[in-house]
Design a protein that fits this description.
alpha/beta, 391 residues, four-stranded antiparallel β-sheet, Rossmann fold, nine-stranded mixed β-sheet, GMP Synthetase, Chain A, domain 3, 27% strand
Length: 391
């Protein structure tokens, strides 16, 4: 890959020419890519081939700001589908399964690849775009879907709607759920809720529009395997940018090997992870992200000296079966950050145990406010439950 990038890719030419070893190649950041696309509109200089070689254009979600545009050639799209094949294989999806993809099929890449990847492996694929949650549930039962692919937040939304409609979701046809877009399916209590609601096994998957589908769970569910046939993974200290010692948490840095048309080399994902190189009982030798993606470095909040990730709060909230939905507000009071939760609760459930669990597990006090059922937003794609407020 290196010779063709030096010859044809303006973004990486100088970086690769100067570096004498892989570890000497400078890191790539999202900010650099955004600046490159701003200075070289619309797609930037990270293109290895003429524009007519590209067959697909997608974009990142833009939850952190302006979205990145990303292009694929037919070869790199085939690579995407091959990566998704590993996701399905790890979860136990088989030819003949009926895969329901609950996704709006907009400009975001992940579930497009999930749809075509399932089709390529011999499954029957059912598109769920342009439908309400009620219509999607009806389609799942009517078409006897056996696999559901969606964000973990949206799986819980489907469970909520099914409950209101008195649908026996746990007795339905779904046997496997696969989740992407956010770390929820690796959060133990969120996974438990989804599995109980659907009567199915739930599997996490990690990928990025600009990087590819790099991580998946196997039947052992002992962390996310990194597909080392297609990616190089490094764990770096986000402050020193040096490799962390084994068993230490750090920032995940990835290189994709099969996306030559618009590659990423030593890309700082911003995701925090803990890697294990111990053999997995499934027989795969690929390293695993223990607990999946633990959170984003820029999502960490410090409450009275305690570092807290939204995923840790979610794990506590999901233990409480009467909590339907929640939102996290962080605000500043007298130079200190304070934490407040808004929760939708069934019936008149006592909120005291939730406050006590937050104090016991996270060692911080949080105000918990009951809000009316249905008043908090629901999400089909990435959830946005954290707000940082001034005052």
């Amino acid at each position: 890959m290196r010779p063709i990038l030096i010859e044809r890719n303006r973004f990486y030419r100088e970086r690769l020419t100067k570096a004498k070893a892989f570890a000497a190649v400078p890191f790539t950041t999202k900010q650099e890519l955004l600046q490159d696309q701003a200075f070289n509109p619309p797609f930037g200089s990270n293109l290895t081939y003429p524009s007519e070689n590209y067959v697909r254009i997608h974009q990142t979600s833009g939850t952190g700001g302006k979205p990145l545009l990303w292009l694929d050639t037919q070869e790199s799209w085939d690579w995407w589908l091959r990566c998704w094949g590993e996701v399905y294989k790890g979860a136990g999806v088989r030819p003949g399964d009926r895969v329901y993809v609950a996704f709006s099929f907009g400009p975001f890449i992940g579930f497009w690849a999930a749809f075509e990847g399932a089709q390529r492996m011999g499954a029957t694929v059912i598109p769920g775009g342009g439908q309400s949650s009620e219509q999607r549930l009806h389609a799942i039962f009517e078409r006897q879907a056996t696999v559901l692919v969606c964000t973990p937040t949206y799986a819980l939304r489907l469970a909520e709607v099914a409950h209101h409609q008195s649908l026996d979701l746990a007795g339905g046809p779904i046997r496997i759920t696969i989740h992407a877009g956010e770390p929820g399916a690796s959060i133990p209590e969120t996974r438990r809720r989804i599995q109980e609601a659907f009567g199915a096994r739930s599997f996490d998957h990690a990928g990025m529009t600009e990087m590819g589908a790099y991580g998946f769970e196997c039947e052992a569910q002992a962390g996310l395997h990194i597909n080392e046939d297609e990616f190089i993974a490094e764990i770096m200290d986000p402050e020193t940018l040096l490799p962390v010692e084994p068993g230490r948490k750090g920032e995940l840095v990835l290189t994709n090997l099969g996306r030559v048309g618009m590659p990423l080399i030593r890309y700082r994902t911003g995701d925090l992870a803990l890697v294990s190189g111990e053999p997995c009982t499934c027989g795969r030798a690929w390293p695993r992200l223990i607990g999946g993606v633990l959170g984003r470095a820029d999502d960490m909040i410090t409450i009275r000296g305690v570092n807290v990730f939204p995923s840790a709060i979610e794990n506590i909230v999901r233990r409480h079966p009467r909590v339907v939905e929640f939102a996290i507000d962080v605000y500043r009071r007298q130079e200190m950050l304070e934490l407040s939760l808004k929760v939708e609760v069934e019936d008149s459930a006592d909120l005291g145990p939730l406050q006590q669990d937050i104090l016991k597990d996270l060692h911080i006090r949080a105000a918990v406010e009951r809000v009316p059922l249905g008043s908090l937003p629901r999400f089909e794609l990435k959830s946005r439950r954290l707000r940082v407020l001034d005052g």
